[in-house]
Amino acid sequence: MSHLTQTQLQHLKELLRQEKRELEAHFDAGAPGGDEESLRNTTGELSLYDNHPADVGTEVFERERDMAVDDNLGQRLDEINEALERLANGDDYGRCAVCGAEIPFERLKAVPYTAFCVEHTPERDAADYRPVEEQVITPPPKGSGERRQRDAGRFDDANAWRTVEGYGNSDSPATASKRNAKNYDSLAPGED
């Protein structure tokens, strides 16, 4: 027997049906630029050769993003259909698929297609995922980068003039031109 009342079950069923209708409307609209359609057809161009490569790259990115969104929405539609089946079967809906505990009505109202309690949600550990490369990267030597981090953004302090002075100032070109003039005078006629 379910821990949810008939009114709650009816409300959740309506939420599932409404979300299913919205997702089916998305897929029925047939967003242009699906995988089966060529890039030429989606852009309306006769040839892509005259386009800048970045324009083509942008178009490819947009298509891949749309495909990822459709894939995500397709998975959600599958989850909704499974939830509607569990609801039709009776006791399976509203219970965690892992531990069998009752899923609170508030959680079902927020995510009516869920089959898991908060403790057993599959995506829950996704934030803790670290790339495998981090297991083989050696840490930097002790102290490297500490000064750079400590002094980050502090160029305008009292020693800034001494640092910039080494590169010269507005009077420096005159000194440099005197030196260049001396070198120029040492050239033989016609070598300039």
UniProtKB/TrEMBL annotation:
<dbReference type="InterPro" id="IPR014240">
    <property type="entry name" value="YteA"/>
</dbReference>
<keyword id="KW-0862">Zinc</keyword>
<keyword id="KW-0479">Metal-binding</keyword>
<dbReference type="InterPro" id="IPR037187">
    <property type="entry name" value="DnaK_N"/>
</dbReference>
<feature type="region of interest" description="Disordered">
    <location>
        <begin position="133"/>
        <end position="192"/>
    </location>
</feature>
<feature type="compositionally biased region" description="Polar residues">
    <location>
        <begin position="169"/>
        <end position="178"/>
    </location>
</feature>
<dbReference type="InterPro" id="IPR000962">
    <property type="entry name" value="Znf_DskA_TraR"/>
</dbReference>
<feature type="zinc finger region" description="dksA C4-type">
    <location>
        <begin position="96"/>
        <end position="120"/>
    </location>
</feature>
<keyword id="KW-0863">Zinc-finger</keyword>
<dbReference type="Pfam" id="PF01258">
    <property type="entry name" value="zf-dskA_traR"/>
</dbReference>
<protein>
    <submittedName>
        <fullName>TraR/DksA C4-type zinc finger protein</fullName>
    </submittedName>
</protein>
<feature type="domain" description="Zinc finger DksA/TraR C4-type">
    <location>
        <begin position="92"/>
        <end position="119"/>
    </location>
</feature>
<feature type="compositionally biased region" description="Basic and acidic residues">
    <location>
        <begin position="144"/>
        <end position="159"/>
    </location>
</feature>
<feature type="region of interest" description="Disordered">
    <location>
        <begin position="27"/>
        <end position="52"/>
    </location>
</feature>
